[in-house]
Fold this sequence. Notes:
The chain is of the alpha/beta class. It folds into two domains: 124 residues, Beta Barrel (Lyase, Ornithine Decarboxylase, Chain A, domain 1); 228 residues, TIM Barrel (Alpha-Beta Barrel), CATH 3.20.20.10. It is 31% helix and 22% strand. The protein has eleven helices and 17 strands. Strands 1, 10, 11, 12, 13, 14, 15, 16 and 17 form a nine-stranded mixed sheet that branches. An eight-stranded parallel sheet has the order 2-9-8-7-6-5-4-3. β4, α5 and β5 form a beta-alpha-beta unit. The longest helix is centred in the middle third of the chain and has 24 residues.
Amino acid sequence: MNDSSVVRRRASLGPNLHLVGKRHARSRLWTPALVLDLDAFEYNAALMAEYCRESGVALRPHAKTHKCTRIAEHQLRKGAIGISVATVREALIMAGVSKSILITSPVVGEAKLDAIASLVERVDELIIVLDSVEAARRLERRLKRSRRRIGALIDIDPGMKRTGVSDVRDALELARFVRGSSVINLVGVQCYSGMVQHIAEAPRRANVYRRELRRLETVLEHLERTGFRSKIVSGGGTGTFDLDRRSGIFTECQAGSYIFMDAQYNAVELFAAKPRSFKTALYVQSMVLSNNHQGAATIDAGFKSFAMDGPIPVPSRGAPPSAAFQYYGDEFGRITFQSKRKVDLGTKVEFVTPHCDPTVNLHDFYHCVRGERLVDIWPIDARGTL
């Protein structure tokens, strides 16, 4: 590696690169820093792969959670059949490591359809979801120009009213159109319910979800009556995985957050029978930069470091007992506690992320640790909203 490439690598992996390989680097990180506990992460990846094998369900984990090709590579090595993504840009980046990609959101717009046409040439299998005949027609027109074929799933709305066909009639109409296409190959259906993933009690979540799955079963029954048997039934998430794997409906699982866990999912009873569950692997490390007031300290992690659509970040390391976090500005957070003693300036305080997916999207790197050693730094190479 020449001098210029060393400089580029250092610039691209941030100010903590010089700490890689050092034993006590975790407490010396430039903050705010996104910290990935590799032991917990690898445990979670192996456990999910084991559960899927036991259940006869393929694993196609969702990269919208981690947005990182290094993590996707690890999941594929552990037996994932491909990678799920939310955006076309994620697909373009994950095509560098996975030969099978499923884009789980509808794709429209000339520029994105052009990208889809080029992406078909880079992977062995590209599948997108469709939820309207009009979207399918636009995709067909673009693919006919390039003479490329693509796989498609009909997106079924379980009641969220976000994306997906809302009734059997629309599903059948879309299926008839796609089955008549010379460039789109209908391979199955997708169904994902984000509304139930974080219902804390397992029995209540199961009751709500079963009603939603009846919609999916009804669509599948009507499709089969018309001569179409779905090769792929894809969907589910970390919160419904236990139900999905036992339902006998899904052929593959799209769960994503299981690799990290967060404050939201740690409050959810994921398994009714309480077998081995997933470990917390992702944290945001901050530093105390002001301690002028009794029972409180200001840290350097605020709105720009944590996603705000979930619960409050949970202190896990470095904070006094019973400490609580408060948002205190763009750059600042605050911890409050009962002790009259001050927390020393420069103290590192780590938090369990409130909602892992959007928190990850605020950071550039994972600082990968084993205990106190910084093992590596992985770029979050698919971050962003495109």
